[in-house]
Write a structure and sequence with these properties.
The complex is a heterodimer. Chain A has 5 helices and 2 strands; from the N terminus they run ββααααα. Chain A is mostly helical. Chain A has one domain. In chain A, strands 1-2 form a two-stranded antiparallel ribbon. By secondary structure, chain B is α/β, with parallel strands linked by helices. Chain B has 12 helices and 21 strands. In chain B, strands 10, 11, 12, 13, 14, 15, 16 and 17 form an 8-stranded mixed β-sheet that branches. In chain B, strands 1, 2, 5, 6, 7, 8 and 21 form a 7-stranded mixed β-sheet that branches. In chain B, helix 1 runs parallel beside helix 10 and helix 3 packs parallel to helix 4. Chain B starts with a strand and ends with a helix. Classes of the chains: A mainly alpha, B alpha/beta. At the A-B interface, helix 3 of A face strand 6, helix 9 and strand 19 of B. The complex binds flavin-adenine dinucleotide. The site of flavin-adenine dinucleotide (FAD) has 35 residues of chain B, from helix 1, strand 2, strand 9, helix 3 and helix 4.
Chain lengths: ~90, ~400
């Protein structure tokens, strides 16, 4: 079952990686590339969060586990380089 | 540079823009969709008193009102980044750069994904997508569909599809996975459905809601729930069947379902295929708060509100200077609550910007109004919403305590 469509990462891969390395959401993302595609994790982010955290960890945290990075929407390289001038 | 930039032209953002503009602020609203109205656009249902709620009309009315109040509305523009420096916000979009003194995030909610085998086949979509196709874009999502997930949102949208003459073959629960404990448990689902009993002409569901107050009765009613399902509108709703997988060669051809026990576990040997050419997945909604996260605003994780929510007071202020929030970004609720929250945010911003005493009173009154509207809301997405709101208020007070203490020390 595919979790991350952009990078075509399956649930099985993410689960196995989690079991093997006992990693947090960020490491899980870096190891599997899930959440690193075109959509910026719009679809699979909540799923990665759920796989990588247990409930108690969630309750204590005041920060979202997977950091949001600008740009939060896909933009062209031209726009990124030129920003508003482009 | 404007006094106020509002991200999101949904009910919360539009209502706030009208009030602020009428009270003298220069206001710019940015929304990435090509039409103003946000999630209000797709809504169409009958309320408890029999009145129809037509979201498309409400959106147009709000949009016209905002324009005539002098609000500048930029559509088809995505905000991709925001920065706070000295006394101004810089709002980066995919086309231009905007600046303002105040920023109101009214970015609404997004649908939580519910993965299931086969969910990447063409013809599978979220219920929200089916809603926009049907009621906004007027395109049929398919000829015969199955809805996976039984929820308030899914039911309201199923009814809209039904009214548009789109054949819904049935509504089933999803198979239990680590992602969906709540949505796959028949008892839990039944409890959440009791809040939309007025939408269901079915006597069964109307009767059952007062009974749901007692846990053992709830147990009983699910146990005796007919295996054939019951009809809410024109299609059967199965609280005793779960979707195991979506099947099809190169596009959706059907859904494999099985009977489930009271805890949501599939019963072997009961599998069957329901044929369909489209499938809607109904998961929950979560607050779309990515822009707030970029500001370093602290968050609270509250399931009753839909997940991670930026810390805020009941006056819609956040710990970040000149940053306000309103609508579903603060927790998943119906459009009428979002409208009322937009009003609170507007008066809070006005009070902050002008320091006028008379806005103080307006803030307090609009805060009370939100609670009243919440209590009468036609749709309640989470039965424990008031607990969620209380949690947020407590966290806010804690933050305030610490903050005032440390600033005294400094
Ligand atoms: C699929 C779906 C169906 C719903 N159905 C119902 C229903 O039937 N009845 C009901 O009462 N409630 C429903 N809701 C709840 C709904 O969220 C509220 O009714 C109400 O629309 C919330 O208002 P809002 O102003 O907070 O946000 P919204 O109405 O969601 O508006 C937010 C706006 O912000 C814009 N936006 C977000 N991020 C950016 C960005 N980075 N840049 C630019 N623009 C941005 C969006 O395009 C959107 O137009 C539904 C929600 C969803 C997601």
């Amino acid at each position: 079952m595919i979790l991350c469509r952009c990078e075509e990462v399956t649930y099985e891969t993410v689960r196995a990686t989690k079991e093997k390395y006992q990693c947090d959401a960020r490491e899980l993302k870096l190891r599997t590339r899930a959440g690193m595609g075109y959509c910026g994790g719009r679809v699979c982010r909540p799923l990665l969060d759920k796989i990588s955290q247990n409930k108690n960890e969630r309750l204590e945290s005041q920060v979202i586990p997977l950091k949001y990075q600008p740009p939060v929407r896909p933009i062209t390289f031209q726009r990124m380089q030129g920003d508003h001038h482009g | 540079m404007s006094d106020l930039i509002i991200v999101g032209a949904g009910p919360a953002g539009l209502r706030a823009s009208i009030i602020c503009a009428r009270n003298g602020l220069s206001v710019t609203v940015v929304d990435e969709y090509m039409k103003a109205g946000g999630r209000l656009l797709g809504q169409l249902y009958q309320e408890k008193d029999g009145e129809w709620w037509n979201g498309l009309q409400e959106s147009e009315r709000l949009y016209e009102e905002a324009l005539s109040s002098g609000v500048e509305i930029k559509l088809g523009l995505s905000v991709i980044h925001i920065e706070n420096s000295e006394n101004a916000w810089t709002v980066h979009t995919n086309a231009e750069l905007l600046t303002s003194s105040y920023l109101l995030l009214a970015t609404g909610a997004a649908e939580a994904p519910q993965p299931i085998d086969g969910w990447t086949l063409p013809g599978v979509m979220s219920v929200g997508a089916a809603q926009v196709m049907t009621t906004v874009q007027r395109v049929k999502p398919g000829n015969a569909g199955v809805i996976i997930g039984i929820s308030v949102l899914g039911s309201a949208i199923a009814m809209e599809l039904d009214m548009a003459g789109i054949h819904i073959k049935s509504m089933v629960l999803p198979k239990k996975t680590e992602f969906n404990e709540e949505f796959a448990n028949p008892l839990h689902v039944m409890e959440s459905l009791s809040h939309i009993s007025h939408l269901a002409p079915s006597k069964l569901i109307q009767w059952s809601s007062p009974l749901l107050k007692w846990k053992y009765m709830r147990n009983l009613s699910t146990r005796f729930f007919p295996k054939r399902g019951f009809k809410i509108w024109d299609f059967p709703v199965h609280l005793r069947k779960a979707a195991l997988e979506i099947v099809g060669e190169s596009k959706v051809e059907g859904v494999k379902v099985a009977a489930i026990d009271i805890n949501g576990n599939p019963i072997e040997g009961t599998e069957e295929i329901i044929e369909a050419d489209f499938v809607c997945i109904a998961g929950g909604l979560y607050p779309l708060a990515e822009l707030a996260a970029l500001t370093g605003c602290p968050f609270l994780d509250a399931a009753e509100l839909g997940g991670y929510v930026p810390l805020h007071s009941e006056k819609m202020e956040t710990p970040v200077d000149r940053l306000f929030v309103a609508g579903n970004i603060t927790g998943i609720e119906s459009a009428k609550v979002a409208l009322a929250q937009g009003e609170v945010a507007a008066y809070s911003i006005l009070q902050h910007a002008t320091n006028h005493e008379n806005f103080k009173e307006k803030v307090n009154r609009s805060v009370e109004n939100v609670q009243q509207i919440r209590d009468q809301a036609p749709l309640s997405f989470n039965p424990h919403i008031n607990e969620g709101r209380k949690k947020m208020q407590n966290s806010w007070n804690e933050w305030l305590n610490e903050h005032t203490k440390s600033s005294h020390l400094a």
